[in-house]
């Protein structure tokens, strides 16, 4: 394994932060972008690697790669449309740790030649696929790092649902997986993470931000924040405006917070349907499933499911009971933990410090009455959890 692959394979969701001045689909993004300054700032903001566009169609050049190399020791991905071995040699001499190979642009023989030559040079390849056929080709080529692009390079249209389906197919393979394009929010990054991506590649969202390194930190920051027990569209809107990443809808008849259905949630957030015992298809992005408990609305333990597959544990309090060791129990759990159990603006900071959860979940402490949210408390909770 090499520096690039190792950096992306580290625990948690990594990010390849991209330096690009313009985009064929969006036009000018940041014409005055300074690759050296941005590369250094992205590395300090937590980027696992930095992508530098070296193609003039994106306002880039190999000099941008040299400037980034002089400014940071972070792994650098040279991004462009490369089809010849000489391209790779120039990029390696300019400081690239990895280069992009787009399967749309090369047949399998050419791709294999580029991958082999890169290895001889001591650099790595990010083999990019769009669509099931190209994904199959990438796997057959033995690619160690596979990028799944949500953007169709012919039409420039983004299809994140199709991308996440392809990402999930790679779980059974050893390749490190990068979800490329279309990530503008923490929830969209988390969706890629839960589908099985090791990292996200983010360009336009960073280049269009007032403060690109701050935007990168925001996308990678944890915990995610879930507001649950939503029953009204206006409360969904308030939670979204406050910055919640996940919106929860309880579909349990016995619950005082039973929702009529999974309400509409913006595409840049995630919806969660909450069930007890057996889940149903409610059209949500995720399912939070509790066990049953005699004489109670729900059991204590729950799991978070994506397409029926467990992707996180929900550590909650027993129904209508306290547990003085609740935070210690949660902190002892391995893997992704969503912390729940009477969290609110008054105690979530302390809980996050004690547990370092992947996500936090609140319902009853954000209400004026069951199922009716206090919008000020929702805002305060999200702000405190951050």
SSE topology sketch:
Elements: H1 3-9, E1 14-19, E2 22-23, E3 27-28, H2 35-44, E4 49-53, H3 62-71, E5 76-79, H4 85-93, E6 98-102, H5 108-121, E7 124-129, H6 132-140, E8 145-149, H7 160-169, E9 176-180, H8 186-195, E10 199-202, H9 204-207, H10 212-220, E11 224-227, H11 233-242, E12 246-250, E13 270-276, E14 286-290, E15 302-306, E16 309-315, H12 326-331, E17 337-339, H13 348-355, E18 359-362, E19 367-369, E20 372-373, H14 375-385
Parallel strand pairs: 1-4, 1-10, 4-5, 5-6, 6-7, 7-8, 8-9, 9-10, 11-12, 11-18, 12-13, 13-14, 16-17, 17-18
Antiparallel strand pairs: 2-3, 14-15, 15-16, 19-20
Characterise the protein shown here.
The structure is a single chain. By secondary structure, the chain is α/β, with parallel strands linked by helices. The protein has 2 domains: 3-220, Alpha-Beta Barrel (TIM Barrel), CATH 3.20.20.70; 224-385, Aldolase class I (TIM Barrel), CATH 3.20.20.70. 33% of the residues lie in helices and 23% in strands. It has helices at 3-9, 35-44, 62-71, 85-93, 108-121, 132-140, 160-169, 186-195, 204-207, 212-220, 233-242, 326-331, 348-355, 375-385; strands at residues 14-19, 22-23, 27-28, 49-53, 76-79, 98-102, 124-129, 145-149, 176-180, 199-202, 224-227, 246-250, 270-276, 286-290, 302-306, 309-315, 337-339, 359-362, 367-369, 372-373. The strands form 4 sheets. The chain has an 8-stranded parallel barrel with strand order 1-4-5-6-7-8-9-10, surrounded by 8 helices. The protein has an 8-stranded mixed barrel with strand order 11-12-13-14-15-16-17-18, surrounded by 4 helices. It has a two-stranded antiparallel sheet with strand order 2-3. Strand 17 (337-339), helix 13 (348-355) and strand 18 form a beta-alpha-beta unit. The chain is elongated, with a radius of gyration of 22 Å. The two termini are 35 Å apart.
């Amino acid at each position: 394994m090499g520096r690039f692959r190792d950096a992306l394979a580290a625990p948690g969701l990594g990010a390849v932060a991209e330096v690009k001045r313009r985009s064929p689909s969006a036009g000018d993004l940041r014409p005055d972008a300074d690759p050296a300054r941005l590369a250094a700032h992205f590395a300090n903001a937590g980027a696992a690697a930095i992508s530098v566009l070296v193609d003039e169609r994106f306002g880039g050049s190999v000099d941008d790669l040299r400037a980034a190399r002089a400014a940071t020791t972070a792994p650098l991905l040279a991004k462009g449309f490369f089809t010849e071995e000489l391209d790779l040699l120039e990029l390696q001499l300019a400081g690239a740790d990895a280069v992009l190979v787009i399967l749309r642009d090369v047949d399998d023989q050419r791709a294999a030649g580029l991958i082999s030559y890169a290895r001889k040079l001591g650099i790595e390849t990010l083999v990019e696929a769009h669509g099931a056929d190209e994904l199959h080709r990438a796997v057959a080529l033995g690619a160690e790092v596979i990028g799944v692009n949500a953007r169709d390079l012919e039409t420039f249209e983004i299809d994140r649902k199709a991308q996440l389906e392809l990402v999930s197919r790679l779980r059974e393979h050893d390749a490190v997986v990068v979800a490329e394009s279309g990530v503008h929010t923490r929830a969209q990054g988390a969706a890629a993470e839960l589908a099985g991506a090791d990292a996200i590649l983010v360009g336009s969202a960073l280049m269009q931000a007032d403060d690109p390194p701050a935007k990168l930190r925001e996308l990678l920051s944890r915990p995610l924040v879930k507001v649950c027990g939503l029953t009204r569209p206006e409360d969904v809107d308030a939670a979204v405006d406050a910055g919640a990443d996940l919106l929860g809808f309880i579909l349990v008849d016995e619950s005082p917070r039973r929702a009529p259905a999974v309400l509409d949630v913006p595409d840049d957030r995630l919806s969660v349907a909450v069930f007890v015992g057996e889940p149903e298809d409610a059209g949500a992005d995720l399912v939070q499933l509790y066990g049953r408990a005699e004489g109670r609305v729900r059991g204590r333990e729950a799991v978070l499911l994506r397409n029926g597959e467990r992707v996180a544990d929900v550590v909650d309090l027993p129904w209508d009971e306290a547990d003085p060791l609740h935070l210690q129990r949660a902190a002892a759990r391995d893997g992704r933990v969503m912390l729940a159990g009477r969290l609110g603006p008054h105690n979530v900071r302390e809980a996050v410090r004690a547990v370092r959860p992947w996500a936090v979940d609140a319902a009853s402490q954000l209400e004026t009455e069951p199922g009716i949210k206090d919008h000020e408390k929702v805002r305060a909770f999200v702000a405190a959890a951050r």
